[in-house]
């Protein structure tokens, strides 16, 4: 009874902070389940070392690209500040923060976050559109 397991479509992965990852020896119906070191789940890359630096770098790049696409709206003098903030929160932050609840944050990632915040601030006529640091924090 129950849901049958398709061994050909099933992968296993052991996640560990240690330099040598433990082996994942799972057998189902006499067949060994394939062990992997990384896989994509719902668009998020999960690695066996538990780090997410490549995923965060990818998200920062995607958010910067989305920001560049929104520049005409953000540079428009007729667009109000509240609208510009809503555009950034809706189109840029949503891309940046997708699956961020799964991120393992360390000092290296905090530095990337700070650099990304500085990159996202758009300058126009020597004035920052968004100069309040609290508006640019991720968390």
UniProtKB/TrEMBL annotation:
<keyword id="KW-0540">Nuclease</keyword>
<protein>
    <submittedName>
        <fullName>Endonuclease-reverse transcriptase</fullName>
    </submittedName>
</protein>
<keyword id="KW-0255">Endonuclease</keyword>
<keyword id="KW-0378">Hydrolase</keyword>
<dbReference type="GO" id="GO:0004519">
    <property type="term" value="F:endonuclease activity"/>
</dbReference>
């Amino acid at each position: 009874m129950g849901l049958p397991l398709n061994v050909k479509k099933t992968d296993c992965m052991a996640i560990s902070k240690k330099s040598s990852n433990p082996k994942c020896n799972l057998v189902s119906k006499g067949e060994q389940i394939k062990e992997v070191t990384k896989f994509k789940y719902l668009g998020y890359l999960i690695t066996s070392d538990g780090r997410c630096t490549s995923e965060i770098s990818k998200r920062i790049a995607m958010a910067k690209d989305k920001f560049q696409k929104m520049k005409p709206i953000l540079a428009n003098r007729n667009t109000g500040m509240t609208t510009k903030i809503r555009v950034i929160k809706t189109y840029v932050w949503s891309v940046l923060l997708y699956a961020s609840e799964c991120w393992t944050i360390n000092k290296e990632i905090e530095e990337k976050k700070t650099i990304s915040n500085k990159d996202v601030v758009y300058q126009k006529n020597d004035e920052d559109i968004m100069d309040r640091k609290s508006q640019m924090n991720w968390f």
